[in-house]
Amino acid sequence: MRLIFTSSFNRFQTINATQAWSLFLTVCKKDDSLGKNPMIGKYLTVAILGAIIAQILEAILIAA
To answer: Whole-model pTM?
Structure first.
């Protein structure tokens, strides 16, 4: 496990979506819990946005 929050943390290093989701889901413990493939993070982002849009559309259609 590679530690994220070390003394060299705030050096404006870029992370990909998979690392960001891993940090979010593990409460900032590990950045590689979802694997190394960057497509996993993109898939999670699209899936969550799709679910949010579906909920908004459902609320609009039920209210109409």
So the answer is: 0.69
Domain extent for 37: 17-63
Q: What domain count does the chain have?
A: 1
CA 56 to each of CA 44, 49, 51: distance values in angstroms, whole numbers, following the listed order:
18, 11, 9
Note the pLDDT tens digit of each residue in 15-58. 889 888 888 888 877 777 888 888 999 999 999 999 999 999 99
CA angle 18, 21, 26 (to 5 degrees): 120
Instruction: Flag whether 27 is in a domain.
Output: yes
Write the single-letter amino acid at 8: S
Q: With b meaning 16 or more CB within 10 Å and e meaning fewer, what string describes 47-57?
A: eeeeeeeeeee
Residue 5 located in a structural domain? no
